[in-house]
């Protein structure tokens, strides 16, 4: 395979558990598989840390065959890298996807260090709460992973990279989701059978596209609000397929993993359209002209997502601007020389100039900070 490529590898804990399945250490590793570092008792942490150190020593001198025997992830990568010798190292990007657990982070670090020592640049992705400790935790982690795929892999594809999912390692629940995501984001998915001499199994990308569901195009506000974490009543979601929702016993719902996936794949079309009519926000003609003047679809989407977040914060906090001042990405500030007028951050370079009203905020202008200052 020639040209630039991105390899996304899921990472499990095979480096730590290899050869220890019947031992006391193996039992400890199974018992603490979902534990974070803060969850571990001191003795358990010492035992796992000792295991990590021993594995690091083994990997330091390991050749390809030995490293492949020790690690499922490296087994897949070594076979894949053999097919990528035509790629220059500077053109090959590695991402390792690890669980938000102590063992998951340490195992991924071991793989990363091994590849770094051989000249490869590797990035580590740990989605917060991604583990199988609970359904809620796993769902939260998968949702972060979906957002990462949409924001990053779509950009790599636009830049001309070939994308490969190496799913030899990791636990089965994560592999199941990554297999589905790979059908949309990857050019191919690779596996390796358990036998040592098994060839690399390649699954090419299916020629499928996800088109926005009619309910998203009709009700983009509902999806945008739920994607921002808002809990809705089922009466408000009458036309939304239940397959996209996580419904609780009180009759309220949020987007589930696939609901968020469908939204992330569709939002660039619907949020690049007309301004959403949001609670607690009103738009002046000047603000609307600023919005209509935005040429980049991605900038329109980023602004509308920021507006949804601002609206929800004002609703939840009864128009108290303190919540916007505290928010790390919005950072509302008053203009010193114009009482009652302030600005909201959208990106490092762009701001919203706004005025507080009895019903929330009136948005006056949008654009580069120096251009919209009153």
The geometry reads as elongated
Rg, please? 24 Å
Give the SSE string.
Answer: EHHHHHEHEHEHEEHHEEEHEHHHEEEEH
Distance between the termini: 55 Å
- Helix percent reads 40-55%
Cross-sheet strand order for the largest sheet: 3-2-1-4-5-6
Estimate what percentage of residues fall within beta strands. Answer: 15-25%
Question: Please, could you describe this protein's structure?
Answer:
This protein is of the alpha/beta class and 374 residues long. It contains 15 helices and 14 strands. The chain has helices at residues 14-17, 24-31, 42-60, 64-70, 72-82, 102-116, 135-158, 172-185, 214-218, 220-227, 257-270, 285-292, 297-316, 322-326, 369-372; strands at residues 5-10, 92-98, 122-126, 162-166, 188-192, 200-204, 232-233, 245-247, 252-255, 281-283, 333-334, 341-345, 350-357, 360-368. The protein has a 6-stranded mixed sheet with strand order 3-2-1-4-5-6, sandwiched between helices. A 5-stranded mixed sheet has the order 10-14-13-12-11. Strands 7-9-8 form a 3-stranded antiparallel sheet. A hairpin with a 7-residue loop joins β5 and β6. α3 (42-60) runs parallel beside α6 and α10 packs across α11. It is elongated, with a radius of gyration of 24 Å. The chain starts with a strand and ends with a helix.
Notable features of this structure?
alpha/beta; 14 strands; 374 residues
Task: Provide a concise account of the structure shown.
The protein is α/β, with parallel strands linked by helices and 374 residues long. The chain is built from 15 helices and 14 strands. Helix content is 44%, strand content 18%.
């Amino acid at each position: 395979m020639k040209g630039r490529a991105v390899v996304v590898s899921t990472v499990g804990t095979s480096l730590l558990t290899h050869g220890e399945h019947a031992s006391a250490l193996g039992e400890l590793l199974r018992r603490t598989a979902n534990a974070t570092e803060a969850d571990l008792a001191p003795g358990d942490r010492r035992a796992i840390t000792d295991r990590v150190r021993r594995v690091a020593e083994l990997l330091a001198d390991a050749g390809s065959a030995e490293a492949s025997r020790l690690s499922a992830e490296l087994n897949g990568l070594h076979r894949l890298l053999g097919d990528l010798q035509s790629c220059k190292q500077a053109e090959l990007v590695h991402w390792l996807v690890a669980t938000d657990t102590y063992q998951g982070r340490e195992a991924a670090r071991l793989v990363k260090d091994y590849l770094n020592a051989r000249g490869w640049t590797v990035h580590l992705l740990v989605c917060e709460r991604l583990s199988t400790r609970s359904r809620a935790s796993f769902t939260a982690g998968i949702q972060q992973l979906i957002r990462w795929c949409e924001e990053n892999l779509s950009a790599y594809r636009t830049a001309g990279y070939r994308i490969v999912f190496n799913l030899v390692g990791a636990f089965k629940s994560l592999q199941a989701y990554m297999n589905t995501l790979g059908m949309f984001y990857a050019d191919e998915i690779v596996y390796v059978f358990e036998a040592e001499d098994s060839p690399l199994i390649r699954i090419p990308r299916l020629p499928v596209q996800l088109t926005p569901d009619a309910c998203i195009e009709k009700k983009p506000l509902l999806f945008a609000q739920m994607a921002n974490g808002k809990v809705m009543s089922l009466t408000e979601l009458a036309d939304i397929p239940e397959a996209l929702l996580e419904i609780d016993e009180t009759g309220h719902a949020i987007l589930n993993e696939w609901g968020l996936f469908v939204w992330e794949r569709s939002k660039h079309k619907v949020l690049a359209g007309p301004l959403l009519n949001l609670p607690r926000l009103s738009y002046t003609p000047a603000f609307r002209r600023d919005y209509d003047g935005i040429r980049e679809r991605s900038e329109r989407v980023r602004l509308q997502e920021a507006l949804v977040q601002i609206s929800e914060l004002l609703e939840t906090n009864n128009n108290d601007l303190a919540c916007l001042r505290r928010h790390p990405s919005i950072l509302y500030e008053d203009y010193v020389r114009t009482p009652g007028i302030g600005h909201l951050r959208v990106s490092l370079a762009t701001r919203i100039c706004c005025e507080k009203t009895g019903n929330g905020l009136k948005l006056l202008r949008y654009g580069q900070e120096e251009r919209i200052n009153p």
